[in-house]
Write a structure and sequence with these properties.
Layout: H1 12-21, E1 33-40, E2 51-56, E3 61-66, E4 72-78, E5 81-88, E6 94-102, E7 107-109, E8 112-113, E9 123-127, E10 140-144, H2 146-151, E11 169-171, E12 180-182, E13 191-194, E14 197-198, E15 222-228, E16 242-246, E17 255-264, E18 281-295, E19 299-321, H3 323-332, H4 337-342, E20 348-349, E21 354-377, E22 382-399, E23 404-424, E24 427-445, E25 451-454, E26 464-483, E27 486-503, E28 506-511, H5 514-518, E29 524-528, E30 531-552, E31 555-565, E32 570-571, H6 581-584, E33 603-614, E34 617-627, H7 632-640, E35 646-650, H8 662-667, E36 671-672, E37 675-676, E38 685-697, E39 701-713, E40 719-720, E41 723-724
Parallel strand pairs: 1-7, 1-8, 6-9, 13-16, 25-28
Antiparallel strand pairs: 1-4, 2-3, 2-5, 5-6, 10-15, 11-12, 13-14, 15-16, 17-18, 18-19, 19-21, 20-21, 21-22, 22-23, 23-24, 24-26, 26-27, 27-30, 28-29, 29-35, 30-31, 30-32, 31-33, 33-34, 34-38, 36-41, 37-40, 38-39
Length: 726
C-alpha cells in the first residue's frame, strides 16, 4: 500500500536528473523501440555475419539477426523493456550486455568489440551504463522510462507533469496537457498517441482541464516527447510537440500493486473569508493493478483501475434581492416569479432591497479509469496485443458569485489491436487498428432560463447545455527493411473523424436598476436559437518514406518525406452553411451542404537530420516542413454555427421590453453572425530547423545545448460578420 500526504511535494532535482540521464529520442510511430550498432574485432575491423541475439527475460521473447557486410545490425520494432544482448561468431568469444533498457520510441546504439577466442569457449559480460547518448537521431526530445513514472511523487498522478522537462517545453503553470507547449508552438499543435494511435480530445488536442485520468499513471509503461525535428515516420498531423505513450504489458511473473494517495483540509491554509476554519478539502486517488502470464512465454494479461474523489469547499459572496424586494416584485410583476426564485436566499441584510449572500459550496470531482491489455507471443516472429482504456469523469463547480453549478460529464474510450510479424531479421511489419472517442456534455444548473444582470445585484447565470461527441478510427501500417547501410521505412495512416455538436438556446436580460427590475422594465436583452445536432465527417490520409542511412558507424543521415491529405469536413444532413465572400458570392453564404473548404493535394513534407558521434560527444542538425491539421474544432464549428439566429433587443427598438421575450422576438428580425473561413485557404505548415551538441559529463549527467527555429505559414484565421436574416 502506498500513502502520500501531500501531492504538491515535487522532487524537482530528481526529475531534472532523471530527464538528463535518459537519451534524447527517438524512433518511429512512438510505441516500439530499436537496437542498432556495429560489431568489430580487437583491431577495430568490422565483423560481418556475426549473430546478434536479444532476449527479454520478463516474457521470454527472443529476436535474432546477423550483421551486414560492414558489421552493422538493426533489430527494429522491439517492445519496451529490459533485454540481454549477446554477440557471437565462430573464432571469437561471446560478448553479452546485460540489462539493456529499451525505452519507447528510442533507437538505441549498442556497439560490441569481440575478442579472439583462445582455447575453450569464452564469454565477456558487461552491464550497460545508465547514461546513454543518442547517436543516430537529430530530433529534439526526451524519453521517460517506467522508474520515474512509478517512483516520483507527481501532483495529481498526472504523467503530463513529466513532459514539462522535455527540451523546448514551456509550462504556463499547471503542468498538464492544457498548459505545456513545445518549441514555441501553440497548444493546438500538440499531439498525443497511446500505443501509436490517436489519444487526443479530437475537438482540441489537449484533454479537458478537469479530466486527469484519461491515461492514468498505471497505464503508462513509458513515453517519449519530441519537441521538434521528428522524422517523416512520426504520426499525428500536427507540427508541435509529439507525446507518444506506450502501455505496460504482463510478464511471466505475477505482479500487482495497490495504492491510496490523499490530501485533506488539515494541510491547507484558510482564506480571509473562511472564518475560524479553512474550506473543507478532501482528495483521494486510489486503485491498483495486476499482471501476469496466462501461458508462460506465450500469453500475458495486465489490468488496472484508478479512481479519484475530490471535494473542495469554496466560499461564494454576492448581493441578492432582499425578501421584501422579492415579495414586492412578485406582486408588481408576476412574470418575474421564476427569475426571482432563482436567486438564493440572502444571509444578512445590507439595505432594504439588497442582502448579502455568503455561503459554502462544494466543487466535486469524481473520476474512474481502467485499462485491460492482452499480449500474445505466437512465436518469436509473430506477436500481437489488444488494449482498451476507458475513463468517466464528472465535474461540478460553483460558478459566479451565486449558487449556480457548472456540471461537466466526459467519457473517454481508446483501444488498439496490434500485429507485428518478422518476415526475416531484416524485414519487419507492424500493423494496427485504433479507436479513440470523447463524449463531452456540459450543463449550467440554474433556476433561470436566462442570465440576468441587475445593477446593484450579483449576476445570475442561466440554465444551458452543450454536447460534443467525437470519434476517430485509425488504420496504420509500418514496414521496416534493413538493406546494407540503409534502414528503410515506409508506412501509412488512414484516420476517419466523426464530430457531433449541439447547443441549447441561450439569452441574457439586463436591467439598469433594482427599481426597473421590480417593474420588469428591461434595458436590453439577447437570445440565441438552439443549435441542433450537427454531424461532421471526414477521412485523412498520410504516407511516408524514411531512410536512416549509416554513412559510417558514427555518422547517420535521417532522410524522409511525408505526404498529407487532410481532406475537408462535410455535414451528414447537409445542414451546415459555409460563409466565404470569395467563393460563395456577394452575400457570403454558400448553399446548405456545400463543402466546408477545398482540400489541398500537394502537402509534401521533406525532412532531414544529421547525427555525428565522436566518443562522448554528439553533434546534431536537421530541418523540415511540417503541415498541420490542428484546430479541427474551428474547421468544423464555423460552418455549423452559421445556421442559427441571434436576436438583440433594446428598450428603444422594442418599446415596453419586458420578460418573457416571446412576443418581442416574434416581432423582431433575427441576425446571423456568420463566421467566415477562407474555403480556398492553404493548409498551415511550419518550417523548422535545429542544431545541437550533446556531451556526456561526469557523475551520470548529459549536457545538451540546442538551437531551435521555426516559422509558421498559412495559419488559420477567422472573421465574424453581422448579417441580417435573409
Amino acid at each position: 500500500m502506498k500513502l502520500c500526504g501531500n501531492f504538491q511535494k515535487q522532487i524537482l532535482t530528481g526529475l531534472l536528473l532523471l530527464s538528463s540521464l535518459i537519451p534524447a529520442s527517438l524512433h518511429a510511430q512512438g510505441a516500439r523501440c530499436s537496437l542498432t550498432g556495429t560489431v568489430t574485432d580487437p583491431q577495430g575491423r568490422r565483423i560481418p555475419q556475426a549473430t546478434v541475439r536479444v532476449l527479454q527475460e520478463a516474457t521470454g521473447l527472443e529476436r535474432k539477426t546477423v550483421t551486414t557486410s560492414d558489421g552493422s545490425y538493426l533489430l527494429d520494432s522491439l517492445p519496451m523493456g529490459i533485454y540481454s544482448v549477446s554477440f557471437s561468431k565462430t573464432g571469437f568469444s561471446i560478448f553479452t550486455a546485460d540489462r539493456v533498457q529499451e525505452i519507447v520510441g528510442h533507437m538505441r546504439t549498442l556497439n560490441a568489440r569481440l575478442s579472439l577466442q583462445r582455447g575453450t569457449a569464452q564469454q565477456t559480460t558487461v552491464t550497460e551504463p545508465l547514461v546513454q547518448l543518442d547517436k543516430s537521431d537529430a530530433a529534439v526530445g526526451t524519453a521517460i522510462g517506467r522508474a520515474p513514472i512509478q517512483e516520483l511523487p507527481l501532483n495529481g498522478r498526472n504523467f503530463a507533469n513529466l513532459t514539462a522537462f522535455a527540451p523546448g517545453a514551456i509550462d504556463n503553470g499547471a503542468s498538464d496537457e492544457r498548459t505545456i507547449r513545445f518549441a514555441g508552438h501553440a497548444l493546438d499543435d500538440n499531439n498525443i498517441t497511446l500505443d501509436g494511435v490517436d489519444a487526443t480530445a479530437i475537438y482540441n488536442q489537449e484533454q479537458r482541464e478537469y479530466v486527469r485520468l484519461t491515461i492514468p499513471l498505471e497505464s503508462v509503461g513509458a513515453f517519449q516527447t519530441e519537441s521538434q525535428n521528428f522524422g517523416a515516420d512520426m504520426e499525428g498531423g500536427t507540427a508541435g510537440g509529439q507525446v507518444s505513450v506506450a502501455s505496460p504489458s504482463g510478464t511471466n511473473l505475477f505482479h500487482g500493486d495497490a495504492f491510496d494517495y490523499f490530501r485533506n483540509d488539515a494541510l491547507n491554509a484558510r482564506t480571509p473569508f473562511n472564518g475560524p476554519s479553512p474550506n473543507p478539502f478532501l482528495l483521494n486517488q486510489f486503485g491498483g493493478n495486476v499482471g501476469g502470464p496466462i501461458k508462460r512465454n506465450k500469453f500475458f494479461f495486465y489490468v488496472n483501475y484508478e479512481g479519484l474523489r475530490q471535494r473542495l469547499g469554496q466560499t461564494q459572496i454576492g448581493l441578492v434581492p432582499s425578501p421584501s424586494f422579492v415579495s414586492q416584485a412578485s406582486l408588481m410583476s408576476p412574470a418575474l416569479a421564476q427569475i426571482l426564485a432563482a436567486y438564493p436566499h440572502g444571509t444578512s441584510p445590507l439595505t432594504a432591497n439588497v442582502w448579502n449572500y455568503n455561503a459554502e459550496a462544494n466543487s466535486v470531482d469524481n473520476e474512474d479509469s481502467g485499462m485491460a491489455r492482452l499480449d500474445a507471443h505466437f512465436s518469436d516472429r509473430t506477436t500481437a496485443f489488444v488494449r482498451f482504456n476507458i475513463d468517466h469523469a464528472v465535474n461540478a463547480v460553483p460558478t459566479g458569485p451565486l449558487n449556480v453549478t457548472a456540471n461537466a460529464d466526459t467519457d473517454f474510450r481508446n483501444g488498439v489491436v496490434d500485429l507485428l510479424h518478422v518476415f526475416t531479421p531484416s524485414l519487419v511489419n507492424d500493423a494496427k487498428f485504433g479507436f479513440n472517442q470523447e463524449i463531452y456534455h456540459t450543463e449550467n444548473v440554474s433556476g433561470s432560463p436566462f442570465s440576468v444582470s441587475v445593477s446593484g445585484f450579483s449576476a445570475l447565470a442561466s440554465n444551458s447545455t452543450t454536447d460534443n461527441a467525437a470519434k476517430t478510427f485509425s488504420n496504420l501500417d509500418d514496414l521496416t527493411w534493413v538493406k546494407g547501410k540503409h534502414i528503410l521505412k515506409v508506412g501509412y495512416e488512414i484516420r476517419w473523424i466523426q464530430l457531433n455538436q449541439g447547443d441549447s438556446s441561450s439569452g441574457s436580460l439586463t436591467y439598469r436598476s433594482a427599481a426597473l427590475f421590480g417593474a420588469n422594465q428591461l434595458d436590453n436583452a439577447s437570445f440565441v436559437n438552439t443549435l441542433p445536432l450537427q454531424r461532421s465527417r471526414k477521412a485523412q490520409y498520410w504516407g511516408y518514406i524514411q531512410d536512416v542511412y549509416k554513412v559510417t558507424p558514427n555518422l547517420t543521415l535521417n532522410l524522409g518525406v511525408r505526404y498529407n491529405f487532410f481532406n475537408d469536413f462535410h455535414e451528414v444532413n447537409s445542414g451546415a452553411v459555409p460563409f466565404d465572400f470569395a467563393s460563395c458570392g456577394p452575400g457570403g453564404y454558400c448553399p446548405a451542404g456545400s463543402a466546408f473548404s477545398f482540400p489541398r493535394y500537394n502537402d509534401v513534407d521533406p525532412r532531414i537530420g544529421v547525427a555525428w558521434a565522436h566518443g562522448d560527444t554528439v553533434l546534431r542538425a536537421g530541418g523540415g516542413i511540417y503541415h498541420s491539421d490542428g484546430q479541427e474544432d474551428d474547421q468544423n464549428l464555423l460552418p455549423i454555427s452559421n445556421t442559427f439566429l441571434r436576436y438583440s433587443l433594446t428598450a428603444a427598438s422594442s418599446p415596453g421590453l419586458s420578460y418573457p421575450l416571446t412576443n418581442f422576438l416574434a416581432a423582431s428580425t433575427g441576425v446571423v453572425s456568420p463566421r467566415l473561413l477562407d474555403r480556398n485557404r492553404k493548409d498551415m505548415y511550419v518550417s523548422a530547423w535545429t542544431a545541437s551538441v550533446q556531451q556526456k559529463l561526469p557523475g551520470n549527467f548529459v549536457g545538451t545545448a540546442t538551437y531551435l527555429g521555426n516559422k509558421g505559414t498559412n495559419l488559420i484565421t477567422t472573421t465574424y460578420v453581422n448579417v441580417l436574416n435573409p
